[in-house]
Amino acid sequence: MDLVIKVHREHVDILIAGTIKTIANAQAIKEAIRKTHEQHTDAIINLMIKDSFIITSSVIGFLIKSIKMDKMTLHVNVGSEELYAMLDDMNLVEIMNVRKAYTCDKA
């Protein structure tokens, strides 16, 4: 898995390429989101999962907590139909602000 952070004026893109499959991958994603939010509290954060067809339960839990409890403006953009379908089956598309495209939101 590769992770790249791109900072723009009013939003930050966290780009993930490759499969999210290890504990280290999950930790890297959570840490990137946490640090981004600390450094850019008012920015929209776009988590862009390019091609992974899976996501760990710890990342799902972290995303829900970040959006619902910590009130982060966070959007999850997925490129994989399989991942989108899985999140839809779990009724998480609306809760996690999931979009079925590898695009980003701007303020």
What does this molecule look like?
It contains three helices and five strands, in the order ββαβαβαβ. The chain is α/β, with parallel strands linked by helices and 107 residues long. The chain has a five-stranded mixed sheet with strand order 1-2-3-4-5. Strand 1 and strand 2 (11-17) form a beta hairpin. The mean pLDDT is 92.
Defining key terms:
107 residues; alpha/beta
Structure, briefly:
The chain is 36% helix and 24% strand. It is an alpha/beta fold and 107 residues long. The protein has a 5-stranded mixed sheet with strand order 1-2-3-4-5.
Query: Globular, elongated, flat, extended or rod-shaped: what is the shape?
Result: globular
Looking across the biggest beta sheet, what order are the strands in? 1-2-3-4-5
Radius of gyration from the CA trace? 12 Å
Count every helix, treating DSSP H or I runs of 4 or more residues as helices. 3
Average pLDDT level = 92
Q: Could you tell me how far the N terminus lies from the C terminus, measured between alpha carbons in angstroms?
A: 28 Å
Beta-strand fraction estimate: 15-25%
Count of distinct strands: 5
* Class from secondary-structure proportions: alpha/beta
The residue fraction in helices comes out at: 25-40%
- SSE order, one letter for each helix or strand: EEHEHEHE
Give the low-confidence spans: none
The largest pleated sheet is described as: 5 strands, mixed
